[in-house]
């Protein structure tokens, strides 16, 4: 087969969820598939994290303007090689691909009613772009991959795709997240914050404030991706600005730094109100860190029913989980052991092999 894969943003330095998903799957496919030929289409970037091999060709399309890159440059380049299929990996795809199309639709949060405001112009424009293009693109897809049964149900219920064209392929996590990253000196609680309303930052900070008031240890909270000024605004809104000095503003944490960051945490807060999967909770659990996990959307499906599940709308419930992990050694140890066992269900190799099987099935039906 000739397989074209859109991986537009994998060379950017500050990668996020969808970028890592396609990158990790491509790395495994390079190792396990020597029979098929791949063309991987990327935008320019400074982090050259994937190298060419005999049957893997990296094609850089020179534009940082998303719409032009995806809707014009990508389909034009793909048509030149006439592949058996094009796999677009990040929720959107060309309206006129010219070849059989597979789309990974990680979620349809952009189609749902907003639960709060977000001041990022980039995210607002992205939402508008996806709301316009995705429903039209889905009509042209041979197959639509999503990352959890929860998200599959959401997509099918939306009426945009029927169940027969859906496939669920769970994400994985990197082998660098393992017990060797676990530290004996766990001296903070970790939260990957965000101004996005779905990340539930105000309630999570309120939960930490309750924990801070009642805990004997009063571990600091390490928060990624939020500035001190932003955190202080949240704290002022919930009436506890005085705890700002016990909050560590970590900024962007690079992928290389993540294993040690998880391994040094006494607990990890995975408290979003809306997720389609939840890679960070697997990474934390694999590093021996108990994850306090929201019982909303896809998060309990991935963490499992015996995880430390909490109501993300209840700061009191989240704080109680932190306090129990701190005070009850037996409960904490059971949570660590459970996490190590649960993560064995997920790997990038599994995801890549299932993706390859889908390629072969769909190309074979041409």
Briefly say what this structure is:
With 366 residues, this protein is α/β, with parallel strands linked by helices. It is built from 12 helices and 13 strands.
Could you explain how this protein is built, in words?
The protein is an alpha/beta fold. Helices cover 40% and strands 16% of the residues. The strands form two sheets. It has a seven-stranded parallel β-sheet with strand order 3-2-1-4-5-6-7, with helices on both faces. A six-stranded parallel β-sheet has the order 10-9-8-11-12-13, with helices on both faces. The longest helix is centred in the middle third of the chain and has 18 residues, at 121-138. The protein is globular. The model has no long low-confidence stretch (mean pLDDT 95).
